[in-house]
Structure formats: structure tokens, C-alpha cells
């Protein structure tokens, strides 16, 4: 453990300015000085702060005036704002799933609940390149942690292994691999299906052993809303058995639900988090209070539905720098010339436009009631995280709250808030330096100076972005 761990709380340095754990060290890897700190916990901005980083972790957080006298590479944060790395706790990384990838998670807009299967002729190398480009778009957008909530195991688990071995430039990857559900239920085409508990339990155990999921995703949705047909529903007694067994292995669970009823049932079946907001209709005040009491984290995933009408009505968003980095010119051209007119003719586009404001208000109510909502996109593109935050701000969620929703709440959703999600001594040094205050306007979270993951500054000029090599944004 590092020698000094100073924690600044409410304007007062703890334990007579410094808590010295052992003899002072000669150097840190980095020291950020004179920065305005937005630490992710929700406390007010702290000005003129210093943060020490060494061996991938945060070693001290203290006013610059009383910071430890240590050497190391010093970064002047004057006039800038330091936040934790952003998180997207629901993606489906492009590549092996096929389809239109970055645009809409490889899903068919005619049947958004079903992934487009990879063809027998799929080029594994091309799939990997597409996945690496998407992962680079997250880092470039300030996102240092992602959770893939269902994918071809060979694709996502291989990338997860490479990320953890330091072989690729990528945010931290947490992954489900295959889903787990009932035959005929939502997502069963890419799931381990459990029909009879006593007979099928070995299938679940084999999946846990072989894929080692960070979180197991179940589905509890019979559809019948929007343009979706009715499908088979996972029985609740079976869901309870699955959750209990997975938790006995020390693994968290999340559930795809879309209504207040099914979300409530999943909570009382023991689910650890919810993969989507309620989108079928307005929630009740009682449900908002339930979420506040239970603290079961709920992913926001507003952009996956809003993205259809956004492209049709406001394609100019593709001109934003983050999108220009994440897409290449040919992709942007195809989206404008082919995808846009196709989506304009689909009823699903306009149904989702109608329902997105309802889901936005549901998210605002849950947050206001003390519930834990976490930024998630259900997509495979870094800039979508910023759109997700914009939609929350448009719904009336204060910008300062959104910073916490995009950082510490994401870590809570993943069960990793002991090591991620805030700028505190002992946590992993994932952080983003901004040139403007995101607590005033969340759009300022796009004004990135640099991104750090695990105590290392991301070299943006080396990121394999689909939009090509980007100039370094930091000035040193």
C-alpha cells in the first residue's frame, strides 16, 4: 500500500491534514496540482486540490497547499476539472454479433430484442478490429469502464482477457458472455437456457466455470408492448433458483426488464441490478420509493431507443468531434444516405420517440427518491455515453448528480465501488481532466484534456479509432 493517503472531506483535511501510513516515498508517478476536484461522491467541487497517483492507484487527495512534498511528473490543473473515469454499464460490443454494429448494437430495428447472428463467413479478424475500434471510442470519450451485457463469448471474453493482460488499448471490460434465461424468453438465441432446475443446473455450473462471467444477466420480459410480440416469460421460481446459485458463487446478477411489474418481481426474486429503465409506461411514486429503499441499481439505456429518431431528425449530431473520431467517413455517409431513410419509415422509430421521455422521467423520479441509477447505453460507441447524460439533464436531473450517476453509481451497479467510481485514496486511478465544469452543464464532460486509466495517460494518437488518428488533446 502507498505510504500516504490523505483524504479531503468537506474542505477539511482529515486527521490533522495528513494520514501517514508509513515513511514518505521519494516519488509518485503523477501529481495533479491546483485542480478543481469533482470526486464522484456527490460532495461539492473542491478547488486547488492535489491528487497523487502511483502504481495505478490514487495515493493522496488533499489541498495543494498542504500536499506531500514528493517528486514525480507534475501536471498543472489550474483552471481545469478532474472527474473519475466515466462508465457505461450496458453495452454489446460490436464485432461478432454482426449487423450494423456501432449504430445500434447489431440489432435489427424490425425486431430490436433479437441480436443479428454472426454468419458462418464472418471474418474473425475483422470482428476483432471492429471491437477494438469501438473500445477505442470509449477511451477517447473518457469512458474507462464498460460492462458487456451479452455477446458471443469467444469475441467478448477474448477481448476481456487481452484487456486484463494489457495487450490492447481498452477501457476495463466486465462481461456476461452468454445470457441465462428460459427457452423462448427474451434473448434465448444467445443464452444458456434453463427449463428444469434439477436437470439443467449443470448447464449453469458449466457456464460459470468456463466463461467466468463478471455478472450474470437474466431476462424477465414477455414483450407485448410497442411492436413486440408476446413471448415466453421466465418463471419466477426458476429465476430465484438461478439468482441464488449464481450469488453462491460470489457473482452478481442483472435482469432485463421493461415494466414496473417485472422490475419489482425481479427485485424480490433477489436480483442485484436492473439492466434497463421502465419504458412501458410511467412508474408509480411507490416504485420510485421502493428503488430508493432497496438501492438496486438501474441502468439508464435511454439512447438505444432515442437514437432512431435522433438520426432521422437531427443527423447533424454526427458532425460532433467525438462521433467523427468514432466513425469513419464511409460509415457516416451510409448512416445519412441509407440508414436514416430506412428508420424514418419504421413505426418502431416513432414509438420509441414517444416513450423515451417517459423513461427519462422515470429515471429522474428514481434518482430523486434516492435510488441508484447508472449511465448505460445498450450500444457500442463511446459518444453515446455523453448523449445518455444529455438526456438525463434534459429530464431535469442536475448536472452535478449526473457526474455521480456516470461514475460512482456505475461502480455500484457492477459491485466495484470499493475500487472504482470515485477519486479517493486507494482506488484505481481512472480519471478524466476537463477544461470546463461538468457540474454546471453536463455537455462540458465532452471537453476532455486527457484520459487516465490505471494511472497511465491514454496516448490518443495511438488509439485505433475508426475515424483515424486524432491529435493529442493535452498540452504536454
Structure description:
With about 475 residues, the protein is α/β, with parallel strands linked by helices. About 35% of the residues lie in helices and about 20% in strands. Strands 3, 4, 5, 6, 7, 20, 21 and 22 form an eight-stranded mixed β-sheet that branches. A five-stranded parallel β-sheet has the order 15-16-17-18-19, with helices on both faces. The protein has a three-stranded parallel β-sheet with strand order 8-11-12, sandwiched between helices. Helix 6 (about 285-295) links the parallel strand 17 (about 275) and strand 18 (about 295-300). The longest helix is centred in the last third of the chain and has 22 residues, at about 345-370. The two termini are about 30 Å apart. Residues about 5-25 and about 100-120 have low confidence and may be disordered.
**Sheet having the most strands:** 8 strands, mixed
* CATH homologous superfamily (4th level) name of the largest domain: Metal-dependent hydrolases
What is the terminal separation in angstroms?
A: 29 Å
- Average pLDDT number: 91
Signal peptide: 1-27
Pfam family, one: Amidohydro_1
InterPro entries: Amidohydro-rel, Metal-dep_hydrolase_composite, Metal_Hydrolase, Metallo-dep_Hydrolase
Domain Amidohydrolase-related: 81-457
Features:
single chain, 13 helices, globular, alpha/beta, five-stranded parallel β-sheet, TIM Barrel, 476 residues
